[in-house]
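#lab-general

N.A. 3:47 PM
ok so I finally got the sequence cleaned up, no stray characters, all 176 residues accounted for. can someone with queue access submit it? mine expired

B.Y. 3:52 PM
send it over

N.A. 3:53 PM
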Amino acid sequence: MKNIKLLFLVFAVGFYSCTTIRVTTDYDTTIDFNSYKTFAFYKKGIDKAKISDLDKRRILKAIESELIAKGYKKSKNPDMLVSIFAKSRKKVNVERSFGYAYDPWVPFYYYGRDRVRVTKHTEGTLFIDLIDMKDKKLIWQGLGSGALRAKTGPKKVEKIQLFVKEILSKLPPEQK
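B.Y. 4:20 PM
back already:
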């Protein structure tokens, strides 16, 4: 029974580590974020993002739904503009493990096993910028980084939605 629990724990930790998104935010501490009620997308900034048009639309749709869920409204005369930027890089993980094994044919003989496992994946980073409409200055920036394992289809849409949700969970920032 203990082995089953241990196996489940190892699987759960491994699965969780594969889906982890690291989020960082920064903001202008002099801004009262309660004064912002409306938003629009900043086309010039979004056009500069070097990602596919499909992914841009997926990201913008996810941002829009998250902001609306937070009580913001999309407007033609917004208080703030939303821009995005994305980048990716290839990562290589090298894991080394050492363990002992028992050989039943040789009494009292244990031998060490040294294994190296190399895995490759793409790590993506999504930046979401909020810009004050009047002053045209950056007031909040959130970024999320994590492994991009889903290449296409519904899994990719879910991953994008998860990235956006995690990043925007820090908005509005807790102010003292």
